[in-house]
Amino acid sequence: MTDILPSSPAASVVNAPRRYRFATEVVTVDNSDDPHNAASVPIYQTATFKQKGATASGEYDYSRSGNPTRTHVENHLAKIMGAERALVVTSGMGALDVITRLVRSGEEIIAGDDLYGGTNRLLSFLAKSQNVKTHHIDTTQSDSILPFLSDKTRLVLLESPTNPLIKITDIPTISKYVHERCPNALVVVDNTMMSPYLQRPLELGADISYHSGTKYLSGHHDLMAGVIGAKDASVGEELYYVINATGCGLGPFDSWLLLRGVKTLAVRMDKQQASCIRIADYLEALGFKVHFPGLLSHPQYELHKSMSSGPGAVLSFETGDTGISERIVEGTKLWSISVSFGCVNSLISMPCRMSHASIPAHIRAERSLPEDLIRLCVGIEDVEDLLEDLEQALNIAGALPTPTK
Ligand SMILES: *Cc1c(COP(=O)(O)O)cnc(C)c1O
Question: Modified residue N6-(pyridoxal phosphate)lysine is at which positions (predicted)?
Fold first, then answer.
């Protein structure tokens, strides 16, 4: 289609900077171009757009190249991410796939050593099939990147906090090292755990920030989406080219659901985070080893605080015994046993048995990923109910120092 007609720009336009505080901006969607003054951005459920004449093409021609519902959610997300350009695709992994297509055979990626499982899988695939090597480093030690930076470095892929070990990466320092030494390299941050409400990597020195929109941005576990934000319009244009060429742009209905979901990001996150802080304190007081950047005991508490406006709503803790952990997970009634996070409902999981099971056991051991680790992803239920349910599960599992009846 776009081979015949000039390709539809369908670009998210460069945005006006944020004018209000985040919670206001996130619920205020610009729909001023709507011909009927619709209060909610409509779903343009169409594959094609008619043209005025044989040579005159309108703004949109074909939904792979651009669709008004997708453009609206992209413009809105660019605003809240502080990006020059935002792009939405069919999943978080789809977002990383688009970004890694900027890397040519023979170039290199530097990434953390506690990455999301799917990210590891994609990087292994690139190493095998595209001759793109990834060096894994301990991103809690910023200097550990220095020996690997070279003129081959194309992407530096960071997460902070990591998941499930909740390790913190110094995004400004690593970005500075990369930009000073490798002008051709891009610093890319997977910001899924924090959401743009709590942390905006582009303001911290990164060139690209991406999210699994499946998590906090949409917030209800009812769609899959990936979101990419570029600081530089020309990088945004290169990414858009890949999306149009490969056809992974988010469909109109899912774009609409994402736009609907993201409006409540700030209220959801405030509630989820406040409850998570209560639960982290509760578990720590019982003597468990709790991984959560909101606890003063977290070794990188200050660093996390300097980059973000809150600790988020995901924590993990160790019980010291895999059997006990299994009984806790299975003993909860309100917490669903599920992978993923960012939903309004609370979730519990054992990463080594679930989300991270695809990482071979010896590598899990190398990365000191404890087999007994339990991850909690706190939702918006009443925190007293969440605590009571957790307590009865700890009790049944024999994990409480002084069991209650
Ligand atoms: C879920 C997740 C992804 C992948 O996103 P999908 O939407 O599942 O493809 C990437 N990074 C992190 C940190 C995630 O939690």
Answer: 215
Instruction: Indicate whether 258 and 303 sit together in one domain.
Output: no
* Residue nearest (by alpha carbon) to ligand 1 atom 5: 92
Tell me the CA distances in angstroms from 394 to 58, 174, 327, 404, one per residue in order.
61, 40, 8, 10
Contact 242, 121 (CB under 8 A): no
Residues in the chain: 405
Q: Are residues 391 and 291 in the same domain?
A: yes
| 404 is a domain residue | no
Ligand 1, CB cutoff 6 Å, lining residues = 91-93, 116, 118, 159, 163, 190, 192-193, 212, 214-215, 224, 226
Give the separation between CA 399 and CA 31, rounded to whole angstroms: 53
Helices and strands in the chain: count of H runs, count of E runs: 13, 12
Q: Say yes or no: 361 and 276 in one domain.
A: yes
Instruction: Quick: pLDDT tens for 344-358.
Output: 999 999 988 877 777
Average pLDDT of the residues in 199-203: 98
- Read off the CATH number of the domain in which 353 is found: 3.90.1150.10
CA distances (Å), origin 301, targets 95, 144, 290, 310, 370: 29, 20, 13, 11, 21
Residue 190 catalytic?
yes
> Ligand 1, atom 1: nearest CA belongs to which residue?
212
Confidence of residue 6 (pLDDT cuts 50, 70, 90): very low
- Confidence label for 404 from pLDDT (cuts 50, 70 and 90): low
Enter the pTM of the model: 0.94
Range of the domain at 371: 265-397
CA of 320 to the centre of ligand 1 (A): 28
CA 93 to ligand 1 centroid distance, Å: 6
Q: Reply yes or no on whether 85 is catalytic.
A: no
- Any domain includes 7: no
Selected catalytic residue, list 70, 85, 200, 215: 215
Q: Catalytic one among 44, 60, 62, 116?
A: 116
Question: Domain tally for the chain?
Answer: 2
Lowest mean pLDDT among 70-84, 198-212, 287-301, 341-355: 341-355
pLDDT surpasses 60 at 167 = yes
Atom of ligand 1 nearest to the CA of 225: 7
pLDDT for the residue numbered 284: 97
Residue at a domain's end among 262, 292, 324: 262
305 as an active site residue: the answer is no
Which among 66, 46, 162 has a CA at the least distance from the CA of 112?
A: 162
